[in-house]
Structure formats: C-alpha cells, structure tokens
Amino acid sequence: MTATVTPAPPRRASAPDTAPGALRAFVCHRGRLIGAGTVAALVLGSLLLGGGSWPASLAVDLSGPLDRTSDWIIDNRDGHPLFLHFLGHVSNAVVISVRAVYLVLLALGWAGVTAAAGLVAWRVAGVRPALTSVAAFAACGLLGMWVPTLQTLALMLVAVAASVLLGGLLGLAAGLSDRMNRILRPVLDTMQVLPAFAYLLPVVLVFGIGVPAAVLATVVYAAPPMARLTALGLRGADAGVMEAVASLGATGGQRLLTARLPLARKELLLGVNQSIMMALGMAVIASVIGAGGLGDRVYQALAAVDVGAALAAGVPIVLLAVVLDRVTTAAGERVGAAPAHRAGLRWAVALGVTAVVAVAGRLSGRLSWPDGWTADIAPPINGAVDWMTAHLYSGVPLVGGTADWAARFTAWVLDPLRGGLQWLPWWVVLLTVGALALLIGSWRTAATAVLAMAAIGVLGVWDPALDTLSQVMAAVAVTLVLGVALGVAAARSTRLGRVLRPVLDVFQTMPQFVYLIPVVALFGVGRAPAVAAAVVYALPAVVRITAQGVRAVDPAALESSRSLGATGRQQLFQVQLPLARPALLLAVNQGVVLVLAVVVIGGLVGGGALGYDAVLGLAQGDLATGLVAGAAIVCLGLTLDRVTQPTERRDLAGKGA
Amino acid sequence: MRTPHTPPHATAPPRNSASVFSVRDLWKVFGPQADRVPADKQLGALGATELRERTGCTAAVRDVSFDVRKGEVFVVMGLSGSGKSTLVRCLTRLIEPTSGTITIDGEDVLSMDTGRLRELRRHRAAMVFQHFGLLPHRTVLDNVAYGLEIQGVGRGERRERAAEFVTKVGLDGMEHRRPSQLSGGQQQRVGLARALAVDPEVLLFDEPFSALDPLIRRDMQEEVVRLHREEGRTMVFITHDLSEALKLGDRIALMCDGRIVQLGTPEEIVGAPADDYVRDFVRDVPREQVLTVRSVMRPALADEYEAGPALDPSATVHEAIEAVARTGANARIVEDGRCLGVVDHVGLLGVVAGIPATTGKAVA
Q: Is residue A465 in a domain?
C-alpha cells in the first residue's frame, strides 16, 4: 500500500485513459501528415532548388582556419601559459603514470605478471577465470607479444583508472542532483553513439600524436559508460531501503556511503566492466595516434596486408578482452553473495604468492618472456592465407570465391547505392532524413537529424559522407536480416540460444579493430571488407536484443494465442514480433550505431570515404582534412542515431544497460 | 473530524497517562501549491476526484487530530489509498506535512531543525516497514546494528547489543546470513530487531505483516503482542487488515479518504459504528468475540443478584454465551464483588444477530 505516497501525476494520467483507438488514430494521422508534407516539399523543392550535390555556395571551407589553429597550437605548445600550466602538466602526468605502470609490470617479470593476474582473478572472480587469465597471459607470451601486451596493458590501466574516477565523479553528480542529470544525460547519450574514431582527432589537435593523446582519447571514450551506469545505479536505489535508512536518522553522508553506494554496487561494477572493455577497444584503435603496443602491431601489419602478423597481435587483444570481461563480469555476479571465509587471509596469500613468484623470476634472471618459448604463427598463417588467395579467392566452381563475392557485392550493391545517394538532390536527402526521424521519433530528434546532416554539407564533405552512408546502409541491411532471423530463432529454440550465447559473448567483447583482420584475409582490401567487418561487429548486439525482446513477450499473451489455435508462424508474426517492436527498434538503432563505428575504421583497409580522410589527416599531419572528416563522422553518427531513435529508446536502454 | 467517543472504560492503558504523539489538524496535500488546500475551507471540503480536477492536488491526509497515549497500541486502519501510510510518515517527517501540528512529549516536531529531527529518528521513534527496507549487502547482525552504527556506537558494543535483539526476535544462528537468504517473516523479524535495537520510545509499524503469508502473519502478530506485554512500549500500528487491528489495537483510528471517520476501542468500532462506512467495514466481524458483556448487560432484577455464573465485565460476549449455555441461567457481571448487571440470552443473541442493543446504554 504505497498509493498514498505517490501523488497521481495530474496531466499525464489523462492521456492513456482516453481510448487507445484515439492514440492509434493520432499516429496514423501523423504518418499521413508527414507523407503529405514530404510530397508537398518534394514538388516545391524540384521547382525551386533543382537537383545535384550539395551546392558549393552553401559550403564553408574550414581548412584555412583549422590549419591556422593547428599551426598556432604547434607553435605555442612550448610557450603558451595554457600549455605550460595546464595541458603540459596533464600530458606529463599521463606519460609519467603510463611509464610507471609499465616499469612496475616489467619489474614483476613475466612470471610475476602472470601470477598476479591469475591471483587477482582468483580473488575477485573465482578459480575458472583465474585459470583463463593465466592461460591468456601465457598465450600472449607464446605468441611473442609479451612486450606489446604489457605496453597496451599499462596504457589501459592508466586510462581505466582515470575514466573510472572521472566517470564515477560525473555519475555521482548526475546521480545525486537532478539538474546535473538533466545536463549530463543528453551529452553522455550522444557520446555513447559516436564512433571511436571521431575522438582521436581533437585530442591530436591539442596534444599531438603520442601516448598522452592516446590515453586521453581512451579516457574520454571510456568514461561515459561509467558515468551513465553510476548515475543509473544511484538513482535506482530501492526507495524502501532509502526510506528505512532515513527513518533511523542517517545523515546525508551516511545515507550515501552506507546505503546508496552499496546498493548501486552491481551497476558500479558493470560500469567498470564497460569502461574496461571500451578502454581496451580504444587503446587498440588509438595506435593510429601513437598508442603503441598490440594495436600498433595490428595497424602496421594491416597496412602491409600481412595477415599472419596482424593475427599474432590480434589474438592477444582478443584474449585480453575475454579475460578482462570474464573477470569483471564474474566479480559483478558475486556481488551480494556472502563474503568468503577469511577473505583477508586469502588476499594475503595471493599477495604473498605474487611476491614470491616475482622474486623467483627476478633471481632466475628471466624478466622478459624467454625468447625460446615463443611460437611465430605469422608464417604458417600467411601460408594459409596465400593458399586461400590461390584457391578460394575466385574461380571456385559453383559458389565463386570470396574475392568474387566481394567484387560482386561492391558492383551490385555498394556502387548502385552510392551512385543513387549521390545522384539524389541534396535537399531530398535532408527531407528523407527528416521524414524518417519524424516517423520513428519526435520533432526534436528530426530537427537534430536534419541539422546534423546539413552540417555535413556545410563542412564540404557531402560526397564522401554519402559514400560512408551507402556502406552503412548496406551493412545495416545485411546485419538486420541476419540478426533478426538469428535472434528470433535463438529466442524460439532454447538449444540454438544455448549454442549461440558463448559465441555472442566472445564476439561482443572483441574490440572493433580486431574484426578487420579476418575480413582482410578473406576479402582483401576495399569497401566490401569494411562492410563485412561492420556486419560481423554489429551482428551480436542485434541478435541479442532481438532474442531478448522476443523472449520477453508476455507469456500470457502467447499462451492465449496458442489456446486459440494459432500456428507457430501466426504466433511469431501476430504476437511475438508486434509485441517485441520496441526491442526491434532498439536493435535497428544499435545496429546502425555499431555499423557506423566499424565502417569508419574500415578507412584503414580501403573503405575510403570519411574514414580514409580521417586516417589520411592523421597519417600526413594534415589535421584540417582529418578534423573536417571527424566532424562529419560525428554529424553522420548523430543523424543516423536520431533517425532510428524511437521515443521509448531511453527506457529500454536504461533497462538494458 | 468526529469527536472521538471517549471510552468510559478504556481497557489497557490507564486513562490519565500522558500522550506521546499529539496530532492536531494535520494535512498532507500532494501537488502544486499544496498549501492553499488546507487554508481554503471550500477546497478542503471537496472530494478526491473533484479536488484533483480543480487543483491538480491529492489530499492524502485531511484535517486529522488524535493523541497516542503512552504505552498503548494505537492502530491506524484503512483501505489502500486512505492516507494511513502517509500519516505515519508525517509523524517523523519522512513526509513533510502540509499544515497542522505534531508534538512528541510536548515538543513541536514540525519546528525541529535537522539535528533535532535526526535525534528524534535515532532515539525516540523507530519504524518497521512493509517491505522491510533491509540493506541487502549486510548480514543480519549488521542490519540490526545499523541504527546504532549511524548513531556512532562503537563496533564491538553495537554488535553485542544487536546480537541480543537478534535473539529476542528468535533469529538465533542466522546472524551471518544475508537478507536474501531469509524468508519474508524472518526478514521482518530483522526489521523489528533493527527498530528495537535503538531502544525507541515509540515503535511505528507501517503495514509490517501485509507482505507475509497468513500463518507467519499470525506468528508475527503474536510476537508483537508479546513484545508489548513484556516491554509496554508505545506502538503506532498501520494496517489494512481489520482482524489485525482488532487483535492488536488498544484504540483504532479508522481512516477513509484521508480523514479519521471513527476513533475508539475495538469494541466501540464494532459495537457502535459511527457511520455507514464503518458499519459496512465491520459487518463481517464476529461481534461476539469483540464486544464485552459490559455493553450488553441490563440491570439485574432483585432475584438475579445471587444466581447464575459470574463474569468479569471485560469478558467477551462469546464467553458469556458459553457460560449461559452451560448453566442455563443468566450470567451476572461482577466487578470487585459487586454485581453490575446481568446478561441474558436475549441480549447475547441480539449481539450475534447484529440487532442494536437496547439494554446496555442505560446502565453505563
């Protein structure tokens, strides 16, 4: 009985009370209205504006001012007070802490690091994750990637610490103050949908290429999930518990420390988990701006189309990702269980064993991974790839080869799509964007989408942006067809669901960068491999959201349809899919956001378009080009997110996060 | 508010005892510009729907006055939405009242500053909640000790005292479990122990047993009765369950739409419903188990002073029926060796049949 405590909201209550028919009529009416408006605008536009690409008169050339800014920063980096007293310190602090962590890891030696990883995993997560992490670190050494692994690990540890701290503080502010929440939430939401690549250029502009830029880009990328989940956890504290705590006379500080924060532990740990996974993904991508480590090896190898070397560096990345995810997830699941017997003692044992192993490693004089213990997998892999190139690329009877597929996909899907988009008059594109966003979301999302799309034109990168868009559309179409089919199948068949789950788990933890390796092996370079990588990357999320949505359909509704004698197909199309509509819309939205992130990175393997501009800008120090491309990527990300953003998305995302 | 029918024969607490909580003209209105509703007589008189349409406000507590006497169990009872939970939260300002006065031991609660209010919540009034409100990450022992912890009691001492109360509510051996490992009834015992551990002057119960199974609920009710008998602590008990109210309450305030429609002993509520709402409410109560013989006796005739079984005035009609049926004679009501009157089968059957007693009033 709490009805008396919550006053009925006066206005909102009346809307659902009115017959649902009225609501549906309104929606239909709205759809017709948007359609009519679009037709009218089309007629008017063709009369007044004509066709063609974005008009040059409406574009602004930013390369001059951007170049000047970039030059100014380079000239003043050593003299201006802003750099001397603030940014310089930030940069130094980052370099020193990464260096320090790296030296500590080196000093522990390979045995010490492996033992420490295993024992920490044992303490926070249990025996199985501990064994996994020992095996993973050993594998990193075996692959001859010990030093790059440590470099990546050091950079990541610093970045994760900073983003957990920063994100935690922001989340605390948003969790405790409604005003901060209103301000931060849209910012964090937007940051979450932007491709990782877009974060690289601004930090490079300020800090130049190097470790500080890489760490800061990683922090900026990895902090939002921590902040979001912290705020979510703090806001979601059980009201009954908070009231009981208040009724005992707890002060504000006591309420926060003894109740609100502990109650949010699950979300906080999930936030740390997400931060770590995002940081790993970014630390690898940031190799483009001088992060070094494993990502750099992959980057160099991909540039030389040396799949074997790329794989040798890619496997440790995947192993790190899996280990970090397993350990933090298992730690999160342990929350709430009774603490282990004599936890302090066990920690002491873990610490002692680590110390002993580290000292033993030191005394035996083997700090770095022994050279003799490595297996170079690059040559055999390259052999296999060569064999594939020779035998599978093309000319396989009946099915054709992978390169044939890629070529055909490019010629039959990507090219016409790109041609069509670029042929469309620019205002028709804007109109379509606006109408679609209006249909799915609200006038506000539509306005943002149209403005962001127009900004791309103003930036003067209309054509490359449409090129990127065509790749995104093709990839999203493939992803959705495959993803929804798989998701529905997984939801309807428990066995398939059980088989699929671990696969999805692994796929979802892998950093975006890694997906480029196998597609280059299979399809060579070009736009088709970029699309393929994007599909593989986005697929798990789409499958998962669809399966969850279909599975979450009210069993009573399903049962009643079955009792009326509905066939399986009728149940699917008339009950499950309609009721899972919010989840399906979310799947589309997520699919689009994830696909864009990888399509942009595809610029590294010949995807061209905006991603290539960004990479080129970084590689040649032509920051103006890069920044314009980066801004266009941000705008495209915003447009795509808003166009596919159903109004209920917030609630769903909140629950799913 | 209707004037409470002052009981001429209040049962448990001595009549002259001081009141712990004293509530006057209390209003709690939710919504925009809530202040104007209690201030405006016209608005205050509106029904719930009309008020919401006119002002967008909901009046959860309307012009309520009552006293909670020291040592009694004061039950506030009503259906969901009647404002009883809001009312009990107003007592310690977990919900800030809109207008009116509340005093505890003569001290004005509404004018207390934060520190004083905290003091009130820490030492003088502790609450037991319907959904327990336990901290899931703490053991039973640490949950019970929580109230002491926020008072700043040292770890050793608070654990010692908590252990004592864990035993008192019958949770021996479960000190190191987490709330999630306990049944609902056990969790509520933890909630009860947590409230008791701070040794409050008043215990506030907000529908504490509504979420429990019937059997466990009965156990817990008996636990409360036992605690009250042993310690004599003042209790304010919120419930929507009439039988629970009748079983535990020394006095019952029956609420409807934010108002107290009747305040009195269980016997008065059942025997003399103030209006149709209350009458409807108590219709199915086995009246013979609530009403005492005092309310149905008639003056004894000359030849009745000596004959028949003797009963105490506080005996229930149910007991009288048994006595009359066994002996076949009218029962005498005897207090301090003096015969106050008699009950006969006509009066007793009248109670069972629900026919208004014609005899009782004259005597009292």
A: no
